[in-house]
Fold:
Amino acid sequence: MRQWGAAMCGLAAGMLAACGAGAVGAAPEPAAYTGPIIDVHLHAASASANGHPPTSICVGISANLKYDPAEPWGQVFGRLAAEPTCENPIWGPMTDEEVMSETIAVMRRLNIRGVLSDAPGAVNTWREAAPELFIPARMFNLAYSRETPEMLGEAFRNGEFAVLGEVTNQYAGFLADHERFDAYWALAEELDIPLGIHMGVGPPGTPALTGGAYRLQSARQIEDVLARHPRLRVYMMHAGYPYAAETKAMLYAYPQLYVDTGILQASVPRADYHAFFSELVQAGFADRIMFGSDQMNWPGLIEEGINAINEAPYLTYEQKKAILHDNAARFLRLETE
Ligand SMILES: [Zn+2]
Structure:
């Protein structure tokens, strides 16, 4: 399994001017961005979010799995998390408290604020620990969330959350334009609630990890929704990976649409991460990509995700700044410092 990031460029965002493709001796690289950062994809996760702790994740986790279905995938995937085969796995801590405190420590060290979702109780606990760092979000899945649009509208008006997301319908096989989610899109448009929806990859072998429920979808799946609700502020979490052409087509047709980089810094080989995002950037959409770590129970994924952006040879300094901060500030209409 090919590894980089953590080994070569993982220590500090500020060191990254010397990392990446520029090392081969081409034109000097743009400097790494080290100013304030916004992470639009954080989870108030438990330590057991990805199996019995401690669990790990490898950069490029999807590559070279050499899987034989004689053994259930869930078992193999669990073993990979407990006994990683890469040289520099990112380990999660043992306790829920450490997931929170280590995430907060990284955010303070690197001057990050972020959109935080997961179970409402956990989101509240994290906000109480560091209220200045978190924008509360409400996670939602059609398969098990009990909240009606009316209930969500009231909770939003009461200030319980500011972003609707992560909407994880895809894991239950409900695609973006499923009719049962119509009323929720209408609510987000009516109340002007930014909405983040999972559109892209989950863990490798996701269908087997969800009882066969998960289905692939490209950005096209959201087309009718955006056509019907032109004032929606939507970001596609995981950027519709790996369907870059569909993501480009949708960004072109819908200038209000944004994407995030969540988990792609680890779930796919880094070369493919760069191939995907360089295609979006080349098409002129560096102003619509937002940094999201999707750190879950692995606080180390936050810095890994920042480094992936800072090492990108196809990004100017201004584009790194846009992706790591400015685009999210605009999308979320935050006060900028
Ligand atoms: Zn997601």
User: Anything to note?
Assistant: The beta strands are 37-43, 56-57, 90-91, 112-117, 134-140, 163-167, 195-198, 234-237, 258-260, 289-290. Confidence is low (pLDDT under 50) at residues 1-23. The pocket of zinc ion is lined by residues 166, 198, 237-238, 262, 294 (CB under 6 Å).
